[in-house]
Structure formats: C-alpha cells, structure tokens
Amino acid sequence: MSYFRIAFQTMKDYWKMSIILTLIFMGIVAMYSVVYPAFKDNLQDMASTLGMKFSFIRGLEYMTTYPGFLNMELYQIFWILILGMLIGFLASSLLSKEIEGKTIDLLMSNPVSRKQIILEKYLGLIPFIVVINMITLFTVYGVTVVIGEKINLGYLIMTHAVSVPYFLAIAAVGLLISVIIDEKIKAGIITIAIIIGMYIFESISLLIPDYKFMGYVSLTHFYNPADILISGIVDIYGVVVLIIFIIVCLIISMMYFDHRDIAVS
Fold this sequence. Notes:
mainly alpha; 11 helices
C-alpha cells in the first residue's frame, strides 16, 4: 500500500531524534522545577531588578509564582524559541536532504504524486511534535507534584495543546524552505534565521509600543504560553491564524514542488 509509506518512513527517520530531544527537555524541565524552591524567596528582588530591561518576556510580572517562573525560564525561551528552532531545522531537511543526497529519484519512484510526497513528509513530522509535547507536559506535572508545588493541570494541558499548531506552523515554514532550497545546511540556517527574526520582531513590538505592528509578522505573537499557563486565556484568533498559515504554506509548498524541475541521478 503506497499511501502513507513516505510518512511512516519519515517517522522512522526521526524517531532517534525524537527520543534525544525528549530526554533533553525532560532534563531541562526537571532542572528548572527543582531549583524553584531555592529561588522562591529571591524572586521578588529579581523581578524588581529585571524590570523594564526584560519586558519583552511575556508574563515576566508573574515570575514570583511557580507557573510564572516556569513560563519565564522554560516556556518563553526553551519552548517557543529553542524547540521551535530545532523543529524548523528538522523540517527544513525534509526535501532538501533528498535532493542534495541524490535520493529524490528514489522518493519520486513511489506511485504517488509530488503533492502527496510533500503532504506525507509533513505528516511524518507530526508524531515527533506530539511526543515531545506530551512527554514534556507529563514531566512538568510530575516534577511539580514531587517538589510539592501547585500548577493548574487544565491550564498546563491547554498550554501544550495550543503549542501544537504553533510548532506545526514552524514545521510548515521549514518544509517550504526545504522545497525551495536544495542544500540541507543552507535550508536549515535560513529557517533558523527566520524563526529568530520572528522572535526578535515580537520582542521589539513588546519593548517599543510604536512598533507593536511588527509582532503581527511573527508566529510567536500568536502563541503566548504566559496567558494560558498563568490565567488559562487561550487566544482563539491566534490559533485560527496559525492554522490558516499552515494551510497556506502547505499549498505553496505543494504547488512549487509540483512545478519545479528536479535533476535526478
């Protein structure tokens, strides 16, 4: 059966990376959660010291609470930026590595259309995103219980659930770059630069009110872990924008790949 064969192969290609990154993020979660009790008494002074200097970190004003501390130390940096860059880098190699490695002819020998190749490559990356998301969620809650702190489980679940379309949007960007750029490393660098650029745009929009409009060109603007984790507020408009963005990127990727000339060995 040819359907989903490429998707399953993509899952197999990334299962080792899934395990490695999941273990890394479990370690990061454990580290920040465990050190919270030691910092608890000093957080008020730290918040006063940081002040406006770090106002680009959303939810900074709540850093004296346990959820606010996790938001600042884990979600606002490692989650939306670092993990975002890693997912983008992996997605940017979906097609570029096949073309650069001269294996694209083998891939295209499957009895499927070029559009289906793009779609299945993308689908094959989804389990990776879901697994690292769920394991991190369980780790956060598990460590929280162990150290005797409190966090709203419903808010935590929503924080991770809404991050799925955010990461899928980043993966869609990486896939689009992968279709356009034939060199794997070059495609990865460009994708990471785009993700960092979007993060900077959002940061500038938060630091300088006159440049608030810059945030709207950033995917980061449409997913704010602070609002969800601390207050349970989900930006439905942001979720819709992310879903539309994913669809548009996939359509462009399929159309471009369907019409481009590819030299096969």
